[in-house]
Design goal:
Length: 67
C-alpha cells in the first residue's frame, strides 16, 4: 500500500489564506510558526517540508495533519 503524499500546494494555499486573513507577511508567518522563512520559500517551490516544519505549520493553522 503506497504511503500518503503531502499535497504541498494545498498546504501553501491554506497558509496563504490564513496569512492574508491575519494581514501577515510570509516572514511574520514564519516567525509566529517558529519555522525558518527559507522553509516556506522551498515549499512554495514544491519541496516537502521536514517533519518539524510540517508540525509547526499545521499547529499554526490549527489544522489536523491528515487534512
Amino acid at each position: 500500500m503506497p504511503s500518503p503524499r503531502l499535497d504541498v500546494e494545498s498546504l501553501i494555499a491554506a497558509l496563504n489564506a490564513e496569512r492574508e486573513d491575519r494581514g501577515l507577511s510570509w516572514r511574520k508567518l514564519a516567525l509566529e510558526a517558529g519555522v525558518n522563512p527559507s522553509s516556506l520559500t522551498r515549499m512554495q517551490q514544491g519541496k516537502l517540508p521536514d517533519v518539524n516544519t510540517f508540525t509547526a505549520l499545521i499547529q499554526w493553522l490549527r489544522m489536523p495533519a491528515d487534512r
